Amino acid sequence: MIYLDNAATTMKKPARVIRAVEDAMHRAGNAGRGGHGAARMADEILFELRETAAELFGCPDPEHVVLTMNATHGINIAIHDMTARGKRIVVTPYEHNAVIRPLKLHGAEIIVAEAAPFDRDCLLNAFEDHLRRGVDGAVVNHVSNVFGCRQPLEDLAALCCRYGVPLLVDASQSAGAEKLDMEALDAAYLAMPGHKGLYGPQGTGLLLVRDLTRPLMAGGTGSNSVSPWMPDFLPDRLEAGTQNLPGAAGLLEGLRFVRERGEDHIRAHETALIAETIRGLRRIPGITVHWPEGLSPESGVLSFVSSACSPTELGEKLAERGFALRAGLHCAPLAHRTHGTLEEGTLRLSVSAFSTPGELSLFLRTLRELQKPAQAGL
Amino acid sequence: MNTILLVCRSITYAKRVQRCLQGAGLRSELVRTPVGVASESCGYSIRVEERFLKKSLSALDACGLRPKKLLRRTVEGYEEVGA
């Protein structure tokens, strides 16, 4: 199979990630729950993970690195905290359901900073307009999981600072391929999955928080056990119950892989592949690429459609020929509404550090073959 | 050899304390805080030799870290000591 669904999860992981998971399953105990060697090993893994993540994402204190199940879990914690202080929340027009649904669940008034596709100035103006009128929080999807466009995060974060509005950054598609500095952004929350661009196992994620945050769940933490309340310090306050230690061990190796290879290098590799793919797709009659002419790709994600069949049908035909892409709305109807593709969605192709030019050449050749009957009017 | 427990609020804080002391070239050991000697219970402490306590506290101060309390082992149990 040629795997081009890395925006869903990076299926191919560095070998060291898999080895670390297996080793932890054999040898690691329950972190923060014992004084014996197996528990100590678990403690060390979690601490190294927090230290490495803090260093990689500009978080001044490893205690502010919270382990989560995925990005959605981290976003839920952040929104639970954010909406306790106020319900008017401004968002970009690219937010995923991981943001929209928790906001709905907490009764938030969702204010979309409406902007034309790929128009950053328009987005900045709309965002500032809502900040000026008064909001209680802001959420920014850094890179769209559908169209691969990068929002002007630094400028949006600066606006939030100017208006004193807490910012949640959803770095689901950017962590690992973009340099992120939480302190420089002065973001209140930075949420990311462990299993996408950080190359960890599924079931892992990270939430970095600037301040003490309201817990979403309560339970045992291995600390301050006589109290019936969650501890008033991080990360224990936000981490109830046993951690996914094998997952954390794998994620730690994933972070080390990203650190060694470098986010800039990974991003350059992925955007070069997407640029070449865009050129190839534009040469195939009946294919429409959802990326503007003349603009360089900004991530490893790309959406396109065919005039011959629906994205779902085309995705199925490609799957029969051994190509894994994702069709549909990608859990982001707001992004599709913004781009006018809500009715049928798109077919999404997404690459990783392990994708190769040869794989994409083969994909383009196969797609050209699939389009031929349509071109012939069959 | 007399030892002192540097009582920490959490395992993560204890690991930070241990890393800081390691960085200063000071030997220490991560241990469970004995139940009953610290009000919060189920915590972790860093054990250091008493003769290195002053150096340890200076190093922690430089790292911006402060243990919750300091405990000395005695024949009767533990007694709190001032920094």
Taken together, the total number of domains of chain B comes to 1
Radius of gyration of chain A: 21 Å
- The fraction of residues in strands of chain B falls at 25-35%
Structural class of chain A: alpha/beta
| CATH level-3 fold name of the largest domain in chain A | Aspartate Aminotransferase, domain 2
Largest binding interface between chains: A-B, 25 and 17 residues
Overall tally of structural domains of chain A: 2
Under CATH, the topology of chain B can be stated as Alpha-Beta Plaits
Q: Return the average pLDDT of chain A rounded to an integer.
A: 96
What is the gyration radius of chain B calculated from CA atoms? Answer: 12 Å
Q: Main β-sheet of chain B: number of strands, strand sense, barrel status?
A: 5 strands, antiparallel
Roughly how many Å apart are the termini of chain B? 19 Å
* Count of beta strands of chain A: 13
Q: How would you spell out the order of helices and strands of chain A?
A: EHHEHEHEHEHEHEEHHEEHEEHEH
Poorly predicted spans of chain B: none
Look at the structure and give the CATH class of chain B.
Alpha Beta
Q: From the coordinates shown, what is the CATH architecture of the largest domain in chain A? A: 3-Layer(aba) Sandwich
Overall mean pLDDT of chain B stands at 90
Question: What does this 3D model show about the protein?
Answer:
The complex is a heterodimer of chains A (378) and B (83). Chain A is an alpha/beta fold. Chain A is built from twelve helices and 13 strands. Chain A folds into two domains: 15-261, Type I PLP-dependent aspartate aminotransferase-like (Major domain) (Aspartate Aminotransferase, domain 2), CATH 3.40.640; 263-375, Aspartate Aminotransferase, domain 1 (Alpha-Beta Complex). In chain A, the strands form three sheets. A seven-stranded mixed beta sheet of chain A has the order 2-8-7-6-5-3-4, with helices on both faces. Chain A has a four-stranded antiparallel beta sheet with strand order 9-10-13-12, covered by helices on one side. In chain A, helix 4 links the parallel strand 3 and strand 4. In chain A, helix 2 (37-56) packs parallel to helix 8, helix 5 runs parallel beside helix 6 (153-163) and helix 9 (263-282) runs parallel beside helix 12. Chain B has one domain (3-81): Alpha-Beta Plaits (2-Layer Sandwich). Chain B is of the alpha+beta class. A five-stranded antiparallel beta sheet of chain B has the order 2-3-1-4-5. The model of chain B has no long low-confidence stretch (mean pLDDT 90). Chain A binds chain B through residues 31-32, 34-35, 40, 43-44, 46-47, 50-51, 62-63, 221-227, 231, 233-236, and chain B through 9-13, 15-16, 19, 30-32, 39-44.
